[in-house]
Structures
1.
Amino acid sequence: MAQMGRNCISIAKKINLLNGFKLKTQSARAASTVIAGEPSGPTVKTDIPGPKSKQLLEELNSLQQAGAVQLFADYDNSLGNYLVDVDGNVLLDVYMQISSMPLGYNHPELLQLLTDPHNMKTIVNRPALGVFPGADWPNKLKNVLLQISPPGLSQITTMMCGSCSNENAYKNIFLWYQQKQRGGGTSFSQQEMDSCMINQPPGSPSLSILSFKGAFHGRTLGVLSTTHSKYIHKIDVPAFDWPVASFPEYKYPLEEHERENEAEDKKCLAEVEDLIEKYNKRGTPVAGIVVEPIQSEGGDNEASPSFFQKLQSIAKKNGAALLIDEVQTGGGPTGKMWCHEHFNLDGPPDVVTFSKKLQLGGYYHKSDFKPLQPYRVFNTWMGDPSKLLLLQGILNVIQRDSLLNLVQKSGEKLMNGLKEFQKEFPHLLYAARGRGTFLAVSCPSTKIRDDLVARMKKKGVQMGGCGDYSIRLRPALIFTPKHADLFLERFRQVLKG
Amino acid sequence: MAQMGRNCISIAKKINLLNGFKLKTQSARAASTVIAGEPSGPTVKTDIPGPKSKQLLEELNSLQQAGAVQLFADYDNSLGNYLVDVDGNVLLDVYMQISSMPLGYNHPELLQLLTDPHNMKTIVNRPALGVFPGADWPNKLKNVLLQISPPGLSQITTMMCGSCSNENAYKNIFLWYQQKQRGGGTSFSQQEMDSCMINQPPGSPSLSILSFKGAFHGRTLGVLSTTHSKYIHKIDVPAFDWPVASFPEYKYPLEEHERENEAEDKKCLAEVEDLIEKYNKRGTPVAGIVVEPIQSEGGDNEASPSFFQKLQSIAKKNGAALLIDEVQTGGGPTGKMWCHEHFNLDGPPDVVTFSKKLQLGGYYHKSDFKPLQPYRVFNTWMGDPSKLLLLQGILNVIQRDSLLNLVQKSGEKLMNGLKEFQKEFPHLLYAARGRGTFLAVSCPSTKIRDDLVARMKKKGVQMGGCGDYSIRLRPALIFTPKHADLFLERFRQVLKG
């Protein structure tokens, strides 16, 4: 086990750089995606957290609020789909750092990248990208981020994390909206320039972003006003009084409840229209609508392609931007690079935000959202070339190993298993849902859900919860049908009790 | 020149890890801090931006709003205090990526760090630190971030950048404030839990953070409501209606205007007290006061130690937290690790935020600001161990090479030069000010300022502006008196016209 990590460097091969191909059209060639040396299964030696984790937790708790820590990991010895903890437990990880590790642990291609002197210098010389970008920055944007841009979106702004990507995307939407009000003029009035300095209109206008109940878009003050998944995220923090519409709550299985679910779509969309009208009238116009393609943190709540198509049409009709937040769904786990590609929209959304699996953050947008003046969407770093470097390696492996195809295959196996289980254990599971390996299933109560997650950990599987009643699966893109078999086998054991 | 970068790896020595010493008590031993191979002076071959930079700018502009870009850099060949651009110009950099590169470019100790297999794995396996921290995380916090904690602050929360550090620090202050209102109880009312989900009081309370005119605390929506440096940062973006007090505007030289400046302090502090009373009365109590120890982006505006002492006392009296934002001032450029250490405060501030030179972001705080529940100050990544790794290397060099002493020496030389110049060229410069190498000088107009900065660039010196009229110096901590001589010599040539 201790050798695993070291070996994976020596077996690494020279990485092939992305050379202008589009990742969307992957070849179907088979490839062994299992990293050499990956454990053949989980091993559980102690309680989790074990004694060493508990001791470290005590130390950490003396420095900060560490109540959310589940275990301390041994990242040097974790590999592929397997997370090793400090007590020597080896866990099949289907949660993958809240869905942020596309190639699992210690992927040899990524370690190999760090031996290149240019790449080392990229890590050490972090520039203020908005002022002094490096020689290769435009090419990197083109050959990495724009290779996977959502169809129809040609503009890219880089950031650091999901919250700041959404925050800056909202800002960008507000600039676009006000620019429209000016009818194309590029100059600001003295009153606007003066009043904004003390947070007053007209310079600081009363505008809003419409969001949905159950949504999660981040935790800084702007995006937190559009987050509505759990009270613990929001309580005691001031918020903007912005409109919040209902998100569809479907009955499952979908094929048996088409009529009810269509009515649910209709009800929610009517609410969106009512809220836009209401907020426009009360002087806080809706400049944009933000929505996740699958509400992740809020419980893996899905809506139909038709819902998203109609939402886009409502946004257009009302002069509001449509922002699709792909922070958790982006990067391949649904079997496509972007989840909204499943929706057959009438043209691209106006703005698409990303982070997590893409290592850095940022947003793609239509060209009419490009701010007319510099320094309006700006900060010291504007992203991080060292993260783009890792993303380049990740995309190369996704392409080389046809990982989006693998996601579809492994996802199908997982979904079939979950559907079987919900028939077999209807008192424990229902509403198996999702796309690719981005899957979830609900439990009748939070207690049952938490109990299943805890017992799976004892069986050596690291899962995650979402919403109040759901289990979410967020394996890495290198999760194979064999890993799916192993997961399902352990899950069945746990469900049997 | 092209060899420079490569050589610096081979001359690197094994890094000594920090072993529990406090950086505040540096030994005075002399050390050669100049990186082997650093150019002996600037070389300017083309206009800046030169033809290659211009071509790259065109490419970048087709992908994003790139109007703030000054040049494209060749980071592989930049070294120490010298930035090399893609046209082969070699610039003495006294701006250093908006003050975020403490050891300049390609410091051998930092490159050496990246050859360690454990460190490589730290870069590749980025965890969700709030849930699955690595085995060495508590120790890293203790041996790196807490080694330089502001005196009296024992708690640390890590983040990613300046904006999100301040955003989360504000949140933390709001939690603390509401907790006080509950009188120590730990439970929330059903009404609070329900109302916060739709952004309404009492769960989303009307609370405020008091800030100062001229301040810069970041650009996401919460902190942008406390930023008041330039309209272009704020216009068209909704803001919280929070109180904004005047920040002292001193007359220089300070020693000739003691009485006026004292009166200025008094006026501003009275305004703070009035605003607190006013906002408390109108139902938007001031939960915290945020202030930079030197207003950086806003024009390097200083206030006296006595101003900060009294501000702290006003905060205490009114039950508001005092947050000192050291994002730009922290990490040594004022000659102390934290600028507020110059102020002889009556005990530590409640919260101190950092980022930039510290590579990651975060905040130190008093233990009564530790949230009682987990998941309240939280996000996927909660910082970045790969940045803490770089910070560890940086602090080691600061200690080994006594860089805080060097900052004091080089700063003294720079300041003496600026003071000389403002006597010699009173029609061009006035109000030389600052601490350490964190220095500024003002010009009679924006045009004169911009002209001086542009002409210095032609002489091979990269400077930065701040506010409307000021030039700011933000060299790396490895900037020596010899570099100061060179800078002053070029500046004199430019001032002579």
2.
Amino acid sequence: MEKIFVFGHKSPDTDSICSSIVMADLQRKTGEEDVIPCRLGEMNEETKYVLKHFQVEAPMLLEKVEEGQTVIMVDHNEFTQTVDGIENAKIITVVDHHRINNFKTAEPLFYYAQPVGCTATLLLELYTLNHVEIEPKMAGLMLSAIISDTLLLKSPTTTEKDKKAVEQLAKIANIDINTYGLEMLKAGTDLDKYTEEELIRLDAKKIEKEDVKYVIAQVNTVSIPDVLKRKAKIEQEINKEILSKGLSLFVFVITDIINSNSEAIVLGDRTDAISKTYEIKDNIAVMPGVVSRKKQILPLVENNI
Amino acid sequence: MEKIFVFGHKSPDTDSICSSIVMADLQRKTGEEDVIPCRLGEMNEETKYVLKHFQVEAPMLLEKVEEGQTVIMVDHNEFTQTVDGIENAKIITVVDHHRINNFKTAEPLFYYAQPVGCTATLLLELYTLNHVEIEPKMAGLMLSAIISDTLLLKSPTTTEKDKKAVEQLAKIANIDINTYGLEMLKAGTDLDKYTEEELIRLDAKKIEKEDVKYVIAQVNTVSIPDVLKRKAKIEQEINKEILSKGLSLFVFVITDIINSNSEAIVLGDRTDAISKTYEIKDNIAVMPGVVSRKKQILPLVENNI
């Protein structure tokens, strides 16, 4: 039987990793035998905490795909965020909750997207549609993905469907979501172990609009000042990245998960895309109430670039 | 309440027209009030037969959309095949069964696609998912769309889901599919009333790959020689179209719906995309067993251009 790789985006977050594992599980239970969950990069501390908690193995590291390789994409669709070689792969399925950007295939495919807070919320629907029973471990992974993407249902990306999914999954996984959720999110805020180079790549989305390339990266913390102690070195790394990748803009968003605020380090030729809305002082934009890259920062940049 | 336009592709076929009407019905029944089914061009004779048979009004003709207009696309996603102004519209939903090609939105959306024979097969699933009862008229329209797209379930694009959908819908609409289906298809083969200029645009898909623009048009008939009597004039119109639109290739596929064969008039600088597989003599390629543009002709051209 044909081997199928399932993966989320580069700089994988908890949704990308968990949804790959869960989607592979669902595929196997609906008849596909050789489905391999993969990751396109190092896992962050939050995700490691999740996999350890539910005693689930990490997905295989995938660096590129060969021509004609059959793949399933979860939690992303943009080619700038995916595995090398995607142009010549055979994409049979996408399950995602992002906007679609210059996605293309040669053949018709299964594509399921909804404007919800997390890919895992849609995977839960697919289990239901296919009448497949959900194991507690898989419920735990989906639950973790939703908590991660919605910052414990507090992000403006959160929908009724996500809330209902969390409720249903918490029962199956037998988890108290507030206790577990906060512990899990806090595990992801231990940024000390990363070099600045790693920090700016930890959860970085590269976007191209016409000829303008830019990156919006995001880290979670319980103390923004703690992260900003490393500002000089972070800026140095960002400037290196701007030069080597030919970027017009790099937005490094530091999100306080307790108080639901962000501050961003903004560098590049096109800082105007941010400064039209938020004052930038000493390369820093203070963004009260901002926690969602997708819903709050990306549209802002897109409209101004 | 916000007005929402629903439409299929330009050069609308029966699936594009019926799915617009049916999708509007489904949207209304799930809470959206002001949903307007639209068409992006003249309806063909087959579609007129269907609407007359089920006594359903024709959708409104839509020539372009204003900036910010909320829209739902059915039966297509490629911007080259859709309404003028789409780049600045707000696409909230797509239901489709084609490959995805350079589709993009600024925001997350509901996107539902599967590699099945017809959009209406997916709409039937959405009725079921939303627990909405299907009226006989709507069942008749969906049934007609599937019969049209799959040439009475004989095209290689036909899947098990399409077959099951037809069975279910025939019961609701109380229709004998073979009798009705053949009559409906035959109604679409009366090509005498079209000028050659109309004929080549009746069901034409314009495709761009990198900088190469090409068109694959298709007509159904019960007699290929009857259509080829007009070959000289058809070629004249195709050559005009090639010049005015800057096309590299125009493939005009004439499909015999009784015997499931096609012959194509092939013109342009890049006829090699066809001649690598089918011998072209006097601008004509004979294609035994070929009835599906999507599954049999498009991949061929895409691979060779």
